[in-house]
Write a structure and sequence with these properties.
- This protein is mainly beta.
- The chain has two domains: about 5-65 and about 140-475, Methylamine Dehydrogenase, Chain H, CATH 2.130.10; about 75-135, Roll (SH3 type barrels).
- The protein contains three helices and 36 strands.
- It has helices at about 5-15, 440-445, 450-455; strands at about 25-30, 60, 65-70, 75-80, 85-90, 100-105, 110-115, 125-135, 140, 140-150, 155-160, 165-170, 175-180, 185-190, 195-200, 205-215, 220-230, 235-240, 255-260, 270-275, 285-295, 300-305, 315-320, 325-330, 335-340, 345-350, 360-370, 370-380, 385-395, 395-400, 405-410, 415, 425, 435-440, 455-460, 465-475.
- A five-stranded antiparallel sheet has the order 2-15-14-13-12, with no helix packed on it. Strands 8-7-6-3-9 form a five-stranded antiparallel sheet, with no helix packed on it.
- Strand 16 (about 205-215) and strand 17 form a beta hairpin.
- It is globular and about 65 Å long.
- The termini are close together.
- Mean pLDDT is about 80; it is low at about 1-50 and about 245-250.
Length: about 475
């Protein structure tokens, strides 16, 4: 895998939009000069389909089958999701063709294996086979691994669609929505067992769910929807829907969007857009307007403008309660502004020393407490790069423990995982590893080659701090 592809993959999965999904029409604005982001188009040589004249809308639907792929060569199909359940038959799994995932529990997947011959019994006619298999025999495109923050125990595994790496929780914590900010579908689950209950889908192929969240006085689902009109023109719509999919109106979103971020506790939204009073061709004069939105009332609480910052969506990160926004400066050495979102005033400035002669690229990977975890890639050839991670905080720049790849704050405590996603670390207030536990990864036990093929897209946590969620999927840059 080329090192630049690694950087882009982490950038996309770490900082896609963090907002909401929902149903009918709301306020829209055109963005005629928007540039297509890497995550927005699968094939850089093709344009999104031209949108129709109708306002964007979203509908609820039952959970469709999801694509799965073999881990082991032979799978044992069982009658029930129980290790003691009778084995219906043993199947040779297809090498490349997808396997349909119909349902899931923490330890088992219900699958349909199309047009395969059984390796047991006398019936050798090729046909579809349905039964339960373990997560060590079949894997989905993306898995959300849910861990108990206190004990590190496995709570659930959630099968998801391609490149899903974001989640929003309802205020009472009973529901969660998983989504990919460049896809049409989002997946809602009940958090008692994290079983998927329904999906939300945009009705037009040119519309994607840039963000999903629960908001308003009734905690209804909201969405920021991007409609691509052509390769270089898009418009964004804020949608709000209740269970009957009735539309309501809201405050407008500013034009020329950069990002729409929701604090992890679900209380505040941050609408970031280009401020055209500056000269965006001059990096030092780039300006981004930030509107802070109270997601309970959907009213703009306050606004401020940042100067000299980047326009990329990954250039901005919000801490857990939304009190502090981190923005990468566009020029000079690697510096990050920390801004008090209540006043818009700079609260501190974090800087990192880099080798000016090296071919390096840095990305804000995580926020834990008052510390930023920065991943720094250094190229040592066209196809290879090494990565190091650095903590930035009030004490300056501190090298992170080599075992730490992603970090998160949950319930006032700090946690991290390793690159392979097999170890959960508990950190102290200085971001040092205090204790650790193993993460059960049956697909890695069954097929060691997945250590190189499966990567962590993102690490996050539920607002109450009870659960840590690790998104794992195939390394699509390979």
């Amino acid at each position: 895998m080329r090192w630049k592809e690694v950087v882009f993959a982490v950038t996309i999965f770490t900082f896609g939009f963090t907002a909401g999904a929902s149903a009918s029409r709301l306020l829209s604005f055109p963005n005629r000069s928007a540039e297509i982001r890497i995550a927005d188009i699968n094939d850089a040589g093709s344009a999104p389909e031209i949108g129709d004249a109708l306002a964007p809308s979203i509908t609820f639907a039952s959970v469709p089958s999801l694509a799965g792929y073999k881990v082991t060569r032979i799978a044992a199909l069982r009658e029930r999701p129980d290790p003691n359940a009778p084995v219906i038959e043993r199947l040779r799994l297809p090498e490349y063709d997808p396997i349909e995932i119909l349902d899931a529990t923490r330890d088992f997947l219900r699958v349909r294996v199309p047009n395969q011959e059984s390796t047991t019994g006398e019936d050798t006619e090729a046909r579809d086979h349905i039964g339960w298999v373990t997560w060590g025999e079949v894997r989905p495109e993306v898995t959300a691994i849910v861990l108990d923050a206190q004990s590190g125990a496995l709570v659930a595994r959630v099968p998801l669609g391609s490149e899903v790496a974001s989640v929003a929780f309802s205020p009472n914590g009973s529901r969660a929505i998983f989504y990919n900010p460049s896809a049409r579908e989002a997946y809602e689950a009940r958090t008692g067992d994290y079983r998927l209950t329904r999906i939300l889908r945009t009705n037009a192929e040119a519309d994607t769910l840039a963000g999903v969240f629960y908001g308003g006085a009734d905690d209804s689902i909201h969405a920021v929807v991007t409609r691509w009109l052509s390769v270089s023109a898009s418009e964004s719509h804020l949608l709000d829907v209740d269970e009957t999919e009735a539309s309501r109106a809201h405050s407008a979103i500013s034009p020329r969007p950069v990002n729409y971020i929701v604090s992890r506790d679900g209380s505040l939204g941050f609408n970031l857009s280009r401020d055209e009073t500056g000269d965006h061709q001059v990096r030092d004069d780039r300006r981004v307007k930030v509107e802070v939105v109270d997601l309970r009332t959907m009213n703009v609480r306050n606004s401020f403008t940042l100067h000299g910052v980047g326009f990329e969506s990954h250039s901005f990160v919000i801490n857990q309660d939304g009190s502090e926004l981190y923005a990468e400066l566009a020029n000079g050495p690697y510096e990050v502004l920390a801004v008090d979102t209540r006043t818009g005033a700079q609260s501190r400035e974090l800087s990192m020393t880099r080798n000016p002669d090296a071919n390096e690229w840095s990305v804000m990977t995580s926020v834990a407490g008052d510390s930023l975890l920065i991943s720094v890639w250094t190229a040592d050839g066209e196809d290879h790069a090494t990565v190091r991670r650095v903590w930035l905080n009030n004490d300056g720049q501190v090298a992170a423990d080599r075992r730490i790849a992603h970090a998160i704050e949950a319930g006032g405590a700090r946690y991290a995982v390793n690159e392979a996603g097999t170890r959960l670390f508990r950190l102290d207030e200085n971001n040092r590893i205090r204790s650790e536990s193993s993460i059960d990864r049956p697909e890695l036990r069954a097929r060691r080659m997945f250590l190189d093929e499966l990567v962590i897209y993102r690490l996050t946590a539920s607002p109450d701090g009870r659960h840590i969620i690790m998104f794992v999927g195939m390394d699509n840059g390979c």
